[in-house]
Design brief:
- By secondary structure, this protein is an alpha/beta fold.
- About 40% of the residues lie in helices and about 15% in strands.
- The chain is built from 11 helices and 8 strands.
- The protein has an 8-stranded mixed sheet, with helices on both faces.
- Helix 2 (about 75-90) packs across helix 3 (about 100-115), helix 4 packs antiparallel against helix 7 (about 190-200) and helix 5 runs antiparallel to helix 6.
- It starts with a strand and ends with a helix.
- The model has no long low-confidence stretch (mean pLDDT about 95).
Length: about 270
């Protein structure tokens, strides 16, 4: 699905995956927000399940990622504004916001900026603050493809998929590495790796945003996450009064524990305030 989304400088075309079903804004909406160096494809299983079970699904490529046009945006706040403009373009008044890693901060900020539009908030593989070491940022400046390899190794706690999505024996490291390398190569004028990780590192408004959240919130964390460790969520979880679900996975929860993550998100949509 392609939409013209208002942003500074004029409307630009954005792509959003709808889970293989025609988008119907009259259905309960759920928006999936990908993380750094990713695109909509990381949400395939969840997007398809919800699209086939009574939901209107939007899994957008953020600006400068995948099929969405425009330069990558440089702050959580600006991307949250873009996300709300995407919902406007799609005719969505209210949605459940689901985000992974960098996307979890964007989902948090978007829900805080428009609390009446947030039915539920689900933050996956999250942390606040989401600090990034200067050594990693420097490595990204000097050799972003080597930095990608480093992040990719830290993101996984296993080597191959279980007999399920994305398929028996799928090489999780290889698939994620190629996705990140492809997105990096597609940006001729911007170092996407540095941009995305600076977006995470710079965000300082998490606790203020949490104070404005009025919807039920769930955190889904990987017990073996080396990128956003579960211990880094204590303050934001308390501020959000969040339910916490911990899965036996690293940072790559969508591929390491796909069925368990789907169950956790389904449970989050049923949670009461």
């Amino acid at each position: 699905m392609r939409l013209a989304v208002d942003q500074p400088g004029g409307a630009r075309e954005a792509y959003a995956y709808t889970g293989g079903k025609p988008f119907d804004a009259s259905l309960p909406a759920i928006v999936f927000v990908h993380g750094a160096m990713h695109d909509h494809s990381v949400w395939t299983l969840l997007a398809r399940w919800f699209a086939n079970h009574g939901h209107a699904v939007l899994a957008p490529d953020l600006p400068g990622h995948g099929r969405s046009t425009g330069a990558p945006l440089a702050s959580v706040e600006s991307i949250a504004d873009w996300l709300l403009a995407l919902l406007d373009a799609a005719g969505v008044d209210e949605a459940t916001f689901v985000g992974h890693s960098m996307g979890s901060l964007i989902a948090l900020e978007a829900a805080a900026r428009a609390p009446a539009r947030a039915r539920r908030l689900v933050m996956i593989g999250t942390a606040y603050p989401m600090a990034v070491s200067q050594a990693l940022l420097d490595a990204g400046e000097q050799d972003p493809y080597a930095a990608i390899d480093n992040v990719n190794a830290l993101s996984h706690s296993t080597l191959a998929a279980k007999p399920a999505y994305p398929g028996p024996g799928s090489w999780l490291h290889g698939g994620n590495r190629m996705l990140m390398r492809r997105l990096q190569a597609a940006q001729g004028e911007t170092n996407l790796f540095v941009n995305d990780f600076q977006v995470c590192d710079r965000y300082r408004g998490g606790l203020e945003a949490a104070a404005r959240i009025t919807c039920p919130t769930t955190l889904v964390l990987g017990a073996r996450d080396q990128m956003t460790g579960p211990k880094q969520t204590a303050a934001i979880a308390a501020a959000l009064r969040a339910r916490i679900v911990t899965l036996p996975a690293g940072h790559a929860l969508m591929t390491e524990q796909p069925e368990a993550l789907l169950a956790a998100v389904r449970g989050a949509l049923l949670a009461s305030a």
